[in-house]
Design brief:
Layout: H1 7-23, H2 30-46, H3 51-55, H4 62-67, E1 75-78, E2 82-86, E3 94-100, H5 115-131, E4 138-141, E5 157-161
Antiparallel strand pairs: 1-2, 2-3, 3-5, 4-5
Helix pairs in contact: 1-2
The protein binds adenosine monophosphate and zinc ion.
Residues 62, 73, 87-89, 97, 143, 149-152 line the site of adenosine monophosphate.
């Protein structure tokens, strides 16, 4: 007699398959599994975009790897839409990168539907600046294109502060 499959196991397996495809990792890490579960439940409740949109990743992109937890970073903040971490070569006492989880190449290639997430990155920068008590003067910077110094082609917002920032920037 065929044994009935447990619906729980079936659900778990299908979620893992989905996450494997979404994250590009053969063994998704526990926190990615847990984050995706919370996300899916929240998104189902409020009817917002499916998590495939949030987790879409570009193979070989260092910031996608950092977001997925496959490369190390010093986390400052994270939620279902953005991840913020310390810049590896800080140019000021506070130098945090705020990165949308969606792989957007740069501002030139941002689509109208990316407006909300780009604005949201700025609000997260303001929140971090408030927490770091650098509200007397900080700067948010989006480098666009190689001549601006953009070196990572996954859109990111720099938050710089904690020292006097000269103008015009170099
Ligand atoms: P941009 O030059 O505007 O593309 O900014 C890229 C920033 O990413 C630079 O300030 C780098 O120092 C920083 N960066 C590059 N790789 C890493 C990494 N693995 N972890 C943290 N920051 C990084
Ligand atoms: Zn990326």
């Amino acid at each position: 007699m065929a044994r009935a499959r447990s619906p729980w196991k079936k659900r778990t397996a299908s979620r893992e398959c989905e996450l494997e495809a979404l994250s590009g990792a053969s063994e998704p890490r526990a926190e990615i599994l847990s984050e995706a579960k919370d996300l899916r439940e929240r998104r189902a409740r409020d009817g917002s975009a499916p998590i495939a949109v949030v987790f879409q990743a570009m193979p070989g992109c260092i910031f996608c790897r950092i977001i997925r937890g496959e490369s190390p970073s010093k986390k400052v903040y994270g939620d279902d839409r953005v991840y913020a971490f310390e810049d590896i070569r800080p140019q000021a006492p506070t130098h945090v990168l705020i990165v949308p989880k969606k792989h957007i190449v740069d501002l030139k290639q941002a689509a109208p539907e990316d407006a909300e997430i780009i604005g949201y990155c700025h609000l997260i920068a303001a929140k971090i600046a408030r927490e770091r008590k650098i509200e007397d003067g900080y700067r948010t910077v989006l480098n666009v294109g190689p001549k601006s110094g953009q070196s990572i082609f996954h859109l990111h917002l720099h938050l710089l502060g904690g020292r006097v920032l000269r103008w015009p920037p170099g």
